[in-house]
Prior knowledge:
Blueprint (H helix, E strand, L loop, with lengths): L17 E9 L8 H11 L1 E7 L4 E8 L7 E5 L5 E8 L20 H22 L7 H7 L6 H7 L4 E6 L12 H15 L18 H8 L24 E6 L10 E7 L19 H19 L11 E4 L33 H8 L2 E6 L8 E4 L2 E5 L16 E9 L6 E10 L6 E9 L11
Amino acid sequence: xxxVQRWEPTTSPEFPSLIPFWIKVQGVPVHLWTEETIxxxxxxxxxxxxxxxxxxxxRMRVHINGRLPLITSSIVEYPNGDEVxxxxxxxxxxxxxSKCFRLDHELQDCLQAKAEKKERLKETERYEETHLRxxxxxxxxxxxxxxxxxxxxxxxxxxxxxxxxxxxxGRDNIFGFDVKDPVKSMNAAFAPAIASKIPWVAILGNHDxxxxxxxxxxxxxxxxxxxxxxxxNPPEAAHYIDGFGNYNLQIRGAAESSLQNKSVLNLYFLxxxxxxxVPYMEGYDWVKTSQQFWFDRTxxxxxxxxxxxxxxxxxxxxxxxxxxxxxPEFWSFDSKNATKGVRQEGTYSASTNSGFFTTLVARGDxxxxxxxxxxxxxxxxxxxxxxLCYGGGFGYHAYGKAGWERRARVVVAELNKKRGDVKxxxxxxxxxxxxxxxIDAQVLWTSSVNGSVAPRL
Length: 457
């Protein structure tokens, strides 16, 4: 007897779009067992219908979109602003994938699980090749207990010129798969930035969602932390954009200059995702078309404002882009042809080229891209006028290389004191050694007399 089993990689049109579930809400203190609380949780995950609240039960009936992954936790906020993570338990839940929590397949057929397993094997091989064979330093948890690196930006802030804008770029700090309390871990990871009392931002890597919170829930927590300028997504694009943590920041001109009320430097932050969910396209994720569309529209809008009254300027203000997973174009460089830094492992980008590099070059305002992901690469290379830079591995909870100090990239935009616009954009790296040594200082961009030139709208 031959049994042929067929699994459809996409959800059948006949598959129901809304499925009613009774869902138990666990982990919420009894004094928050209110109809308002359960309605908020229910409306965050689907179409809320009813609730059952008693001394024994705190459950709700919600119609869930059957074409999307099930949401298994939700953040509930106390009246004083504190938060608790509620666990959502779906009653009578039978066939589903325990990895991606979709209802249209089971674990053995999950493309995401297969991709993650394959990439974990690759990452283990990379770790063993670059770290385990020769590294006699303490294990990550022991190293963290001995010494928590001070932000590399502390010393740099004391030495850069007054009319400058200073950006630290720490990358690849922690893995999420062995984290039991992601909120507590995030608070600890961001504590030095919060303690510095200066504005800071964050984007997600590919491991952050591997604990108990989704990428959306992670960003929703981050944006509530003190002094952060991070955003979940731009309001005008929230209904169509992929990922969580896509946003733009505008840096104003020097104080008391003619450009003090115009953006002279635009920062773009994008969510490059985690692993591909597209059938037959295994490996890492990428910046999607919807995100590129948002970037293109935002860049053009900022140029119109830059060129408009009052005090119209020529061309575009320069920009910098930050995301985690590198573009395939990073493969264009090695230790020999990079402007600064080294390549010590491959570029583990997506298996497809989304065209984002072409989009960036076509717009012309972004001068440098900064990524992480490949921990022991720290080079910058210039391709078609665009600097492609690795941040360098920073955290001790992620793999590194024996004898190769953890490092953080620093980026400084120096402003013209009189005109107020950006004069130069420079970068260097701080090593986590005894002296917080500076290496690989370089100029990424210098303004011309007539300003930066960009393509016509």
